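Kindly inspect both lines:
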Amino acid sequence: MKNYKKNYLKSFFLLGAILTITSCSESFLSEDPDTFVSPPLLLVNEAGAQTYLNGAYDAVQQSIAPTGGSNPAPWSIYWGTTAADEVVFPNWGGERKLIYLHQVTPTTGAINQAWVKYYESLNRINSVVDRVGAMSSDQIDSDLKNQYVAEAKFLRTTVNFALVSSWENIPLMKNEVITLENINVTQAAPSEVYDFMVADLISALPYLPTEQGGGRVTAGAANALLGKIYLQMTGFPLNQTDKFPLAEQALKKVMDSGVYDLLPDYASIFDLDNEQSQEMVFAISLDGPALGEGGLLGFFFGPQGSVQNGGGWGTCHINHSFADSYDIDTDVRMINNIARHNANNTDPETAVTDETSWTVGKNTWRGWKWHAESPNGYANDSPFDYPYIRYADVLLLYAEALNGQNKLTQGVIDNTVNRLRTRAGLSPAGMMTLGSQEDNATELLSERRKELCFEGWRRNDLIRFGKYKESISGITQGGPNAGDPITQYEDFEIRWPIPDAQMQLNPNLVQNPGY
């Protein structure tokens, strides 16, 4: 299953009725790239089903991961990072600045683009679930069909999770839309969406393989996402604390599988050679440059200097409180995640270790988790895979699940949080010790930011822990950023507005309160 990224196809479902196949580096089919293939003609054998499934993987790539121009609103950046407390945005940050400042309205273009992109992706994945699931036994082996449908259900959950996290009150589309008739659907309660996601993952689990996957969905990925969703259900808006034990059970299965482990060196996790390592429970495959499958990792978050020299765009800077949360002298995550150098003046290897290269002022430090080579020819189209769920995340989620039940022990802390801190180079004095349930939660939330920064989960984490408003209120650093969001933030902005363009198209939609 390695190098599955090479088999992604750029595809587009027109209301699920047409699949446009364009070439990639290793195409399954020999059709001309511009050929339109009717699903009934394609879905006649295993090869056709695999091709159709590739469209579902591509849909997730184009909506969740930080990809290039074909994805105007990547969820991991727009929702997960922009309006949290890892970065701040300057005045030239475009509509991302509005998200950071909590100035979005129902007419903000980026919010409408996100809604359209995510529902387009969802419909493409629903088409796979419905159409591959309907194939007969003489067209495809039943076990393989069940696996393909299970993979698609996991992918569908990633998009539904993005939708319900961002807007809370959303239409729950359980099947492919193939006609413009009767599309004026109503919104489901968030609890119904969460229950549907849980059911999708549970039904998928028996049919998924147990290996790492190399970009394909596996049982470990499904259990990890199930545990993450259960934990999200314990916080706002559901506050279902009975989900802590269920999260513990799902995450323990990942830990007991023997498939995943931490890499010994933090920096190596994000090397191109390790993008599908044993630490990646599920990483969304990207490929580039010039293949139409590349990403923005390393450029959206990158040091000062030109892109060709390994620099980034300069559209966001590091939040001071985030930088200050590290032990600046010993935590290797600090020097690997935060750029204090100019890429035009030094190479990435030197910038990690040579303090004389750290010439950039604190106000314009930048994120730097994916260290693009210098020089490189990526042109904002890098091949770095996006880590949707890492094993480090699983360990921290597991500790959180136990703490939520007041069952956390020092032994569990040592095998989760302190494993990460030891890898990061912290001394025994920097290890976490068991405290009160509240103190433990504070430590776990802080550790998640230091370990998982820029991976797209921070806003969900803050909301789940009940710390979102407090965190936004703490951004008061001044400097070249566009302002402090606390001057704009109101409680209802914990969710995004339903786009006005969508409400005009569908009169059954109800705007989220406050907008």
